[in-house]
Amino acid sequence: MSDIIRRDPRAEWIARNRLHPLHAAMQPAQHSWMGPNGVIRKNPHGMGFIGPNGIKRIDRSGEQQGGATKRTAAVEVQLPLHQVPAPAFYICVVPDMVGGRLSSHDRDLLGLAHQLAGSDGAVLAVVFGEHKETTFGTAGVDRLLVLDGEEFSGYAPEQRVQGLRAVDNQFSPRHWLLPDSRSGGGELGRRFAAALGQRPATRVWQVKDQACIGRAGAGLQDLARPLARLILAAVECAEPVSETRHEALPVELSTTVARSLSRIEDLGAVAVDPAAIPMAEAEFIFSGGNGVKDWQLFHQTAAALGATEGASRVAVDDGFMARDRQVGASGTWVTARVYVAVGISGAIQHLQGIGACDKVVAINLDPGCDMIKRADLSVIGESAEILQALIEAVEAYRNDAKRDAA
Ligand SMILES: Cc1cc2nc3c(=O)[nH]c(=O)nc-3n(C[C@H](O)[C@H](O)[C@H](O)COP(=O)(O)OP(=O)(O)OC[C@H]3O[C@@H](n4cnc5c(N)ncnc54)[C@H](O)[C@@H]3O)c2cc1C
User: Fold this and answer.
1) CA–CA separation, 188 vs 279, rounded Å?
2) Could you tell me the pLDDT band of residue 3, with boundaries at 50, 70 and 90?
């Protein structure tokens, strides 16, 4: 049999769409689940498959039932390679790279860049400082320019504007895209626009029919204006690239960037109390639900990790957490890079609130719950035991780091 993996996009869409009448039929048969009293139940009739001669077979390797092997194959699916050997023009994207990695906002921007690039243009990402990103290709970067000189590190908007001006002179991009964010892009974009003497389109959430539509009037109105060269785009301005992979070929500046006479002195990062960070802006959220049995331990773990605390509605209704900590449809919609859900089942109202989170870690007793399905990493077990182990691991890590530094 051929190794080529055949996909049925309609079936995949139905499997994701809980409201579709055929949704249940598209789910893999569940052979074991946790009963209401916590005991794991198994359905022996659900196992196996009917062989070609009509006899039921049980394959204990799990291969035939869509087990491990099938999943591995799905992971290895190679997306078609999109190449632009001789770009007719460039669309430049300057991602925020919070924590050295592409954020979901950055990925939305790369999606928008591909809309503007079409098949002839190339998307050029300009990245400042050292990064840890390994997925530029699948995020849609055709050319990658890393400006990692020490002068660009930290808070150096003036020097970065000089770098962008050098890129502008060399590549003359048709459009510049920056995230209109508080993580750097919003300020850098406005400074760069002033340096170029151009009016940027700001808070843009849609680019369509040669027009940019942005939020205005305290976010209450839409403002449409002709497609600008410099676009500062909002979150979800476009779908991220998901159907192609790109070369991310490294390119370099042919000139050295002039050093700007900095009028800003970077005094370094200031430690803040994670509890004081508004939920909507928190990068690392440690959230507790009905499965948290020891709230003292929960707060202790959040403090050890330096995370901002969040909660499910049940935890709030039961009085364990303040109302402003509720995550979800009727609470706060969060955009954390890491969201840890402790004892949260993953009700649709909660999942809506964490839709924009990059990485979700679930700690839960029930391996079949919806939060585990959503999670990128799951730990199955009793929350108190896992939190205790987590505190010990963090302390051991900190002690090792201190010993190495001494
Ligand atoms: C109109 C409306 C709006 C809503 N808005 C929101 C909202 O904004 N946010 C929100 O969160 N909910 C909201 N809800 C409620 C939502 O439907 C769920 O009821 C709620 O999210 C469930 O919270 P939970 O996951 O903490 O509790 P449960 O559903 O009770 O889940 C507890 C989880 O903990 C696990 N568990 C139990 N014991 C342990 C243990 N010892 N160790 C580890 N895991 C354990 C269980 O397996 C289970 O998965 C809304 C509901 C409605 C109707």
Assistant:
1) 24
2) low
Pairing of strands 175-179, 201-208: unpaired
Q: Work out the angle at residue 232's Cα, subtended by the Cα atoms of residues 226 and 235, and round it to the nearest 5 degrees.
A: 115
Which residue's CA is minimally distant from atom 37 of ligand 1?
A: 291
114 within some domain: yes
Q: Assess if residue 3 is contained within a domain.
A: no
Pocket of ligand 1 (CB under 6 A): 289-291, 293, 312-315, 326-331, 343-345, 347, 349-350, 353, 364-366, 369, 382-383
Q: Whose CA is nearest to atom 26 of ligand 1?
A: 289
Probe target for ligand 1 pocket from 323, 350, 382, with the most ligand atoms within 8 Å of CB = 350
| Tens-place pLDDT, residues 71-97 | 444 445 678 899 999 999 999 999 999
Asked if the structure places residue 262 within a domain, the reply is no
Same domain, 63 and 90: no
Asked if 282 and 219 sit in the same domain, the reply is no
Q: Which domain, by its residues, includes 309?
A: 274-405
Angle between helix 185-196 and helix 157-171 axes, rounded to 10 deg = 60
Question: Within a domain: residue 52?
Answer: yes
343 Cα nearest atom in ligand 1: 34
Number of domains in the chain: 3
- 304-336 pLDDT, tens digit per residue, is 999 999 999 999 999 999 999 999 999 998 888
Q: Distance from the CA of 345 to the center of ligand 1, in angstroms?
A: 5
Q: How confident is the model at residue 65 (pLDDT cuts 50, 70, 90)?
A: very low
For residues 280 and 339, membership in a common domain is answered with: yes
Same domain membership, residue 229 and residue 311: no
Report field, pTM of the whole predicted structure over 0.85:
no
Query: Per residue in 202-222, pLDDT tens?
Result: 999 999 989 999 998 887 889
Half-sphere exposure of 289 (CA within 13 A, CB side): 22
List helix spans (H) across 197-329.
295-305, 313-317
66 and 85 belong to one structural domain: no
Return the residue whose CA atom lies nearest to atom 3 of ligand 1: 330
DSSP 204: E
Residues 114 and 197 in one domain: yes
**Nearest alpha carbon, ligand 1 atom 12:** 313
For residue 34, which atom of ligand 1 is closest to its CA? 47
Q: What CATH number should be reported for the domain holding residue 348?
A: 3.40.50.1220
Which residue matches tokens 């050029």? 124
